[in-house]
Amino acid sequence: MTKTFAVIGDPIDHSLSPNIHNAAFRELGLDCTYIAYRIPKGELAAGIESLKSIKIAGFNVTIPHKVEMLKYLDWMDDNCILIGATNTVSNDNGKLKGYNTDMDGFLDPIKKRNIAIKNSNVLLLGAGGAARAIVVAFAKEKASKITISNRTKENAINLAHLAQKLGIVVETKSFQEIDASTQYKFIINATSIGLKNETTPIPKECINKDTIVYDIVYMPMNTDLIVQAKKNNSTIIYGYEMLLGQAARSFQIWHGIDAPYDAMKKALLGGF
Length: 272
Fold this sequence. Notes:
Elements: E1 3-9, H1 17-28, E2 32-38, H2 44-53, E3 58-61, E4 75-76, H3 78-83, E5 88-92, E6 95-99, H4 102-112, E7 121-125, H5 129-140, E8 145-149, H6 153-165, E9 169-173, E10 186-189, E11 212-215, H7 224-231, E12 235-237, H8 239-255, H9 261-270
Parallel strand pairs: 1-2, 1-3, 4-6, 7-8, 7-10, 8-9, 10-11, 11-12
Antiparallel strand pairs: 3-5, 5-6
Helix pairs in contact: 1-9, 4-5, 4-8, 8-9
């Protein structure tokens, strides 16, 4: 019997997840299929019931359901609890188990490049769900300090409390307060800035050959931040690499085997 997997959210038609997972199934000859399933805001309970009725094997969760989905889980991993959101669910005979692969997905391309995180100084743009996962990731890997910069300072302060609880030195700044003379090892964009080709608020002086620049926006691939980083010979990590890292981790949770990373990458890059 064919196992069905899905990604739920709204909007969902732009999702690249079906491309990625179906390519993995083809590569390994698995009798599985992966669909995009639109569940509008406010209709999550009914949507989950219909997924259960078709005996869905597992599903990814995207905006706007990542936080609300926690209410419908029978079990969740520690990352869900810390980050306060889930993006991967497995259906174990009607019991829904929740995972959060944002942290592993985020760390994956850093580890693939053998870049050390310990004792590093980090500048993080954004204070939403992805930024929460990134703070948890850097705390786990023992970064020494995170500067959180966000449009609304209040959200940055809330996220700073989490960072402090996890034992990391933290400060918050508005975009205007980012200090051009400070040296950051990592500069991370976890906001939507770049989606519509906006200019990055990060001062050019912060970006140099010793900086690792990581923009989690994956469409367009070359955001303004990435373009600046290329000009200044920084090490660049693209948003699609985090997406792939998350997908590979979801695959592993559902199937108990390593994901065919190269086949997934080819399908993803073909989708651009």
